[in-house]
Amino acid sequence: MRRWIGMGLLTLSMLATNACRTTDAASNNLQPCEIALAEHAGAAKVDEDIRTTQKKIRSQQASQQVLPTIEQLGWSYVEKARVSFDPGFYKLAEQCAACLELKSAQLTNAKSQEPAFVPLSPQSAKASALLLRGHVQHALHRFAEAEQIARELTTSRGLAFDFGLLGDVLMEQGKLDEAITAYQRMMELKPSPQAYSRAAHVRWLKGDLESARVLMRMSAQASGNGDAEASAWAWSKLALYELQAGQLKQAAASCELALELQPGYAPALLAKGRILLAERKFNEAVLPLQRAAEKNPLPEYRWTLADALRAAGRNEDAQNVETGLIANGQKDDPRSFALYLATRGEQSATALKLAEEELKQRRDVFTLDALAWAQSAAGNHDLAWQTMQQALTIGTSDARIFMHAAVIATRIGQPALARRFAQRTSTIQSTLLPSELEYLRQLKL
C-alpha cells in the first residue's frame, strides 16, 4: 500500500469553515462535504481545476445541479492522486462520494422547484458515488470491498466503467477468467482507451506480447491530450512492453512521449531508467531513476535506483537508498518489499510473512510469484515449487517469474526444468534488474 504523504492527508484532517455550512445539529452529517471542500493548495492544472470545482459547489448548495459537480470534484481528486502518487487524495475522493450520497438524500427530501430533468438525478447520484467509492477501494487495495460495489453497479446500472471496475478487482484477486468476461462486456459497451489498456494487460498476462503492444499503443494514442495522465501512463506501460520485445529505441520513444504529456512523470522516468539499465548505461540510468524515486518512493522504484547505483560503482549511495527502502518498504508496498528481501537474501522470515499476508487480499500471478520466491528464500524449496506452478499456469511471459522458476527448480534438483526456464528468461532478460541478472549468471546449467 502506498504510504500516506503530502497535502492529501493534511487536507483530510481539516474542515473548511466555509464549506457546506449549516447552523443546526445536521451539520455533523455534512462533514464529508466540509472535508471535500477544504482549502486546496497546488499550482498544477489539476489543482486549479479542484479549486474551481470547489467554488462552483459552494455556489450550488441548494440546487440539484450540485450533484454532478461534486462527482467531478471526486474524479479530480482521483486524478491528483494519480499524478502526485499521494494516496491521501484518494481519501478525499472517498469523502466526495460520501458528500454526493448525503447531498442526494438531502435534495430528494427537499421540496425542489427545479425542473424534473437535471444532469445527475438523486437516483443516479447513488450509482455515481458507488463507482467513485469503488475506484478508491481498488486503489487502496481493498479488493473484496471494491468487488461488492462493482457487482452492485453491474447489476443495477451496467455501464462500461462499472464492468471495468469489476474486472480490475477480480483480476487482482486472481479471478482472471471472470475478469476477462467483465472486460469483454466493457469493450462491447464502450470501446475506449480504458478498455484497450485493460485488454492489453490481459493479453500480456496470457503471454501474448505482440497483441499487448498493439492494444496499449491504441490506448495511448486514443487518450491523447484529452487525458494527459492516462495517455502518459499508457505510453509508459507500452515502453515496458517494447523493452521486453527487445525494441529499445521504440521503448525510449514511448518514454519521451509520456514525458512530453506529463513532465516528470514517475512511471515514465522509471521505464526510461530501466531501458538505460538494459543498455548497460548505468551512470545515465541513475538520474531518471533518482527523479522517479523522489516522486514515488515505493520499493520497486528505490530497488531499481539502488541497483543502478551499485552497478555504477556507487555503493555508498546505493546503501543510503536501501536504508530508506528497508525503513518504509513494509508499509509502502509489502509485496515488492518481500520480493526485494528475498532477492537480497535478507530477513527471509519477514519476506515470507509479508507475502503470505498479501495473498489473503490478492491471489494474482505476481503475488503467487512473490510467495514462491519468499518460500524458497526461507528454505521451503519444495513448497515454493508448488506455489510457483500455480503462478505459471496462466502463461504470463515475465522474466522475473521465469528467473525465479529456474532458481527454485535448481534448488529442488530439477536441472532440466531449470534449463527450460533459464532459456525462457534469457530471451527477455532485458527487463530484469542487475541484482536479478546475477541469479541468472550464477545458474550452472
Would you give an account of this structure?
This protein is an all-alpha fold. It folds into three domains: 1-108 and 119-140, no CATH class; 191-279, Tetratricopeptide repeat domain (Serine Threonine Protein Phosphatase 5, Tetratricopeptide repeat, Alpha Horseshoe), CATH 1.25.40.10; 333-445, Alpha Horseshoe (Serine Threonine Protein Phosphatase 5, Tetratricopeptide repeat). The protein has 24 helices and no strands. Helix 10 packs antiparallel against helix 11 (209-223) and helix 18 (334-344) packs parallel to helix 20 (365-377). The longest helix has 22 residues, at 88-109. It starts with 5 loop residues before the first helix and ends with a helix. Mean pLDDT is 90; it is low at 1-29.
> Biggest sheet, in brief?
none
Radius of gyration: 23 Å
Number of strands: 0
Q: Determine the fraction of residues in helical runs and give it as a percent range.
A: over 70%
Secondary-structure element series: HHHHHHHHHHHHHHHHHHHHHHHH
The proportion of residues in beta strands is: under 5%
Mean of all residue-level pLDDT scores: 90
Tally the helices: what do you get?
Answer: 24
Structural class computed from helices and strand pairing: mainly alpha
Low-confidence stretches: 1-29
What is the number of domains? 3
Shape, principal axes of CA atoms: globular
